[in-house]
Amino acid sequence: MITNDARPTCETESRTVMAKVAFNKMKVLFTNKLDRNSRKKLAKFYVWSVTLYGAETWTLRKVDQRYLESSEMWCWRRMEKISWNRRAKN
How does pLDDT run across 13-22, given as a tens digit for each residue? Predict the structure, then answer.
């Protein structure tokens, strides 16, 4: 759903939630039996297709873009089993 002022905020949030549900259903992404490239391909196919469905019609603001980027990082961190409070130092 796009609001009257043409902002797809509700749509990006609902799509992100649907993608997280799809990600959690894919238990094969959490196993070490598959190599990293195979897990990446599966995530792009199953998770990002759900997230970005209809995205070509969205006019993204910075807030929406950051929201999508944070959900992407959530997905990759879960696949690599990295804790949310672990930081990388430069």
Answer: 888 888 888 8
Looking at the structure of the chain, the number of domains it has is: 1
The percent of residues in the chain predicted with pLDDT above 70, rounded, is: 86
> 3-class DSSP state for residue 73?
helix
> Any idea how long the chain is?
90
pTM of the model: 0.69
Note whether residue 39 is domain-resident: yes
Query: Nearest to residue 35, comparing CAs of 2, 87, 80?
Result: 80
Domain for residue 1, yes or no? no
Instruction: Give the integer Cα–Cα distance in Å for 44 and 39.
Output: 9
- Write the DSSP assignment of 3-58 as a string of letters: -TTS--HHHHHHHHHHHHHHHHH-GGGG-SSS-HHHHHHHHIIIIIHHHTTTGGG-
